[in-house]
């Protein structure tokens, strides 16, 4: 029997399958585990199941010699030192695909909420300020024929693009290479600055890496056309939040829809009072269906790795897997 350390309870009963095979230690829900607290928590465990705010640094791989697999309950793996895992012989797994539609739906919920001023309208009705239909009440932005610019045409980016076609938008995207999407006419724009200069709606779907940290900075925000909408459901650190606030304050942007933040869960105070932004608490994948499927995938990955097999969805393949 192997020992599995789980940093927080997961939705559904997927963990029960692990308990049938192994000894499972589940930490009660609490603040993220970082630094030496993470090392102590893992201890002699063979597998770690963790959340996206937990930090799995190089010291965890160095000081926890039994650890064979880190199964992240997320598709993004920017919270794990991937190179240290690889060279230490530890699998890192993630939860792709099962959350793609949920996250793409939420990106679209943000696009529509900002373009059509849903939050402001909701607030107006609840506060009693709605006094009757008016020709110019809460005028928003039409999306049909406009350009939806996507950074990162991966699984979620492609799902957002497909929905964009349904809303009559023209799709353009940037990434490190062209990634054609079946059934979607999408223009690959190799020069990010050129894409930004044409974006009516900018939606971010790249992972957080050394190359994408603060990819959208003050200079690049300045390239967006007047009235453009910025939507971020990737990772907060992809955008310079201070620069975004300044761009909004200048009146250059049409608004922003954010599910993720640079210093999560702290939100830049300059965003909180603005009526042209819609702010969500990192709920991109938060449907019952997606979160349950993520838990099942985490469990399948741990079971496979501990059996000496290749996990179902590896994010990092170890140089020489620990045994
Ligand atoms: P994918 O790996 O399928 O897609 C990411 C895409 O980003 C790839 O196609 C890649 O394309 C592109 N990319 C990588 N590096 C760069 C770069 N430097 N510049 C531009 N594009 C780049 O991942 P998913 O679509 O499954 O998930 C994307 C991200 O969404 C996750 O990493 C996670 O951070 C976030 N996420 C957030 C959720 C939420 O709750 N808000 C829920 C789920 C995911 P190429 O290789 O061609 O460059
Ligand atoms: C992810 O999976 O990366 C999200 O941020 C949470 O589902």
Write a brief caption for the model:
The protein is α/β, with parallel strands linked by helices and 323 residues long. It is built from twelve helices and 13 strands.
CATH class bucket of the largest domain: Alpha Beta
End-to-end separation? 14 Å
- Count of separate DSSP helical elements: 12
Helix/strand structural class: alpha/beta
Helix content: 25-40%
Order of SSEs, N→C? EHEHEHEHEHHEHEEHEHEHEHEHE
Main sheet strand line-up = 8-7-6-9-10-11-12
Looking at this protein, list some descriptive labels.
323 residues, alpha/beta, Rossmann fold, 2 domains, seven-stranded parallel sheet, six-stranded mixed sheet, 12 helices, elongated, binds NADPH dihydro-nicotinamide-adenine-dinucleotide phosphate, binds (2R)-2,3-dihydroxypropanoic acid
